[in-house]
Amino acid sequence: MQGDLPDKPRRGIRSFVLRAGRLTTGQQRALDELYPEFGVDDGDAALDLATLFGRDAPTVIEIGFGNGDATWRMAEAEPEKNFLAIEVHPPGVGRLLQEVQARDIGNIRVAMTDAVALLQDRVADGSLAGVRIYFPDPWHKKRHHKRRIIQPGFTALLARKLAPGGILHLATDWVPYSEHMLEVLDAEPLLENRNPDGGFSPQPEWRPNTKYERRGDRLGHETRDLVFRRTDT
Q1: How far is residue 109's CA from residue 33's CA, in Å, rounded to a whole number?
Q2: What pTM, to 2 d.p., does this model score?
Q3: pLDDT per position as a tens digit, 33-60
Q4: Which residues have C-beta within 8 Å of that of residue 123, sequence separation ≥ 6?
Q5: Domains, in order of start, for the chain
């Protein structure tokens, strides 16, 4: 995902590895029966978000939702927003769809695809109220840093997709990655830090704590949030 041109991040280096996770019977059923209703169809056509959700409302994209624990909690707490959740691993998608059905949540749609391709090809510039990326793979080893999703080219793409005033919210429990994130976001001219003092932000009220985060807390990890706003220009 690293790219030198801000308007065209490369697709050659991916920030994720497709793992052969085991699907439970319930997750497979959710994929078979619920993805046709709540999933985004494959294709290259631009997404009409109002048609996709059956209403015109501010839309937030979450990239890499894992098992969806934070996703459904945010959607329940913010019913006035639409949530388009992107994840490539089928077990996590199946689990989120199970929660959507069990909790009768109507403001979530799911895309099981590469986020870069979806944003580049199918999401209109200036159409998003927010983008949220929580605990992306930090790719600890130096030789793998190029795989980190937060790179200048991808950040420029995210900024273009946000409407003026839209919010980009990142969170990580890997301090070296957080510092890299801050450096990249500070350098993007279409974004401004919502923390008036600069640097990292307090955890916003909309981000729920998850099982993954609580595990990190027990291991002594420090979670850092970065909240940036798309400028009006």
Answers
A1: 14
A2: 0.89
A3: 999 999 999 999 999 999 999 999 999 9
A4: 46, 47, 61, 161
A5: 25-230 (3.40.50.150)
List 41, 44, 56, 137, catalytic entry: 137
State mean pLDDT over 64-76.
Answer: 96
Q: 12 pLDDT band (50/70/90 cuts)?
A: low
The answer to whether residues 91 and 58 touch, using CB atoms and an 8 Å cutoff, is no
Q: What is the pLDDT of residues 99-128, one digit of tens each?
A: 999 999 999 999 999 999 999 999 999 999
Instruction: Tell the residue number behind the tokens 């999401």, with chain if given.
Output: 123
Binding-site sequence positions for S-adenosyl-L-methionine? 62, 87, 114, 137
In the residue annotation, 41 being an active-site residue is answered as: no
The DSSP secondary structure of 77-138, one letter per residue, reads: H-TTSEEEEE---HHHHHHHHHHHHHTT--SEEEE-S-HHHHHHHHS-TT-EEEEEEES---
